[in-house]
Amino acid sequence: MPGLILAAPSSGSGKTTVTLGLLRALRDRGIAVRGAKSGPDYIDPRFHEAASGAPCPNLDAWAMPPEAVAGLACGSGLLLIEGAMGLFDGAPPDGRGATADLARQLGLPVVLIVDAARMAQSLAPLVAGFANHDPAVQVAGVILNRTGSPRHEAMLRAVCPTPVLGAIPRDGALATPSRHLGLVQAEERADLEAFLAHAGRTMARQIDLDAVTALARPLPRAAAPRFAPPAQRLAVARDAAFAFAYPHLVRGWSEAGAEITTFSPLADQAAPDADLVILPGGYPELHAGRLAANARFLTSLRNRAVYGECGGYMVMGDGLTDAQGTRHAMAGLLQLETSFAARRLHLGYRNLTADGGPFAGTWKGHEFHYASTLHANGVPLFEATDAQGTALPPMGLRQGAASGSFAHLICPGAQV
Question: Do residues 271 and 301 lie in contact, with contact meaning Cβ atoms separated by under 8 Å?
Fold first, then answer.
């Protein structure tokens, strides 16, 4: 079970595209390969799965204890972990949760993906700085991205102090569309297979795949974590509007004995019979009119135990106003009005404590959305602090058997 980390000096360097291309190129070679994503990300892992054909876990060094990270990283085949942001970028004040933490915890080398489009000899001090910053983090190779010409590539290779494993020329066909929370979801791209095939051919041609795989090192052996399920029978919404459920939690609940069924609110499917209905986050604001018209779905939530995260939380409210300023009536389970007409970014890790609801206890989570809360009346669900322990206003609402918040739960305080 060998592994390798693909990181970069900063966001926007092309980590995701290079990772996807490598996963597909290695798969096309007949190599058993799988991906993982550093940190709280719902979108990139689904692209990893499409490229490799294998499940992609999130590995979060801030929210998960080291034994959970190691357990989720285990599996068959070569593991390529895509970093988040820059290699050493993490939560304040000290960068905890950075991709570099995964390198230290798992004992894996790092391949640095550098956007060299506007760079020449300055590549040398940049790479040297990352390679020498922390002796516990081994930068074992470099992939040059967005090179301009063979001459440009040769200039970069001549000064790079770390082995260059490949160089990717600028290519508009490797660009990926995005929206306010990141890339457009994998399931929404009709051209996904063509994109992955092109990325795979490009990486196979431009990168020394043998040199990349030779850098991989054995992963520590650990058991996959199990998480106490919030109820025995769970109904989890799953479609393009409710796609942000962490697979490690859903799988962990199943392995702990929970019975899990899925349904599609966008298809106006009623929530199945269950002890708890879970509405994950996603992009309900893009489908608000359709959801408001889906009476079978909305009616099925009444007089039920329902929990919502972020987008799911908004759908549980009285109304959701879209980016064009149109209000859409939602389920009315919580006294909550939200709006995208005036966008405001809410972002960061959260320490959460609930004394009631289906997720009572302490949790690590994160918040990432642009919605504004117009009003929220009722009993708060979570007491919250940020990554530095600074107190935040209480998060979410509880009303009867309905509860939810803008927080995405990542890991409980203790595993089963």
Answer: yes
**For range 85-112, the mean pLDDT:** 97
DSSP state, residue 55: -
Please give the model's pTM, rounded to 2 decimal places. Answer: 0.94
Per-residue CA distances from 300 to 263, 269, 373 (Å): 12, 9, 25
Domains delineated in the chain? 2-218 (3.40.50.300), 233-412 (3.40.50.880)
Q: pLDDT (tens digit, 9 = 90+) per residue, 100-140?
A: 999 999 999 999 999 999 999 999 999 999 999 999 999 99
Closest of 91, 112, 87, 92 to residue 102, by C-alpha: 87
Residues taking part in catalysis: 310
**Beta-bridge partners for 408:** 366
Query: How many CA within 13 A on the CB side of residue 273?
Result: 0
Rg (CA), the chain: 22
pLDDT classification of 181: cutoffs 50, 70, 90: low
Separation between Cα atoms, residue 278 and residue 264, nearest integer Å? 12
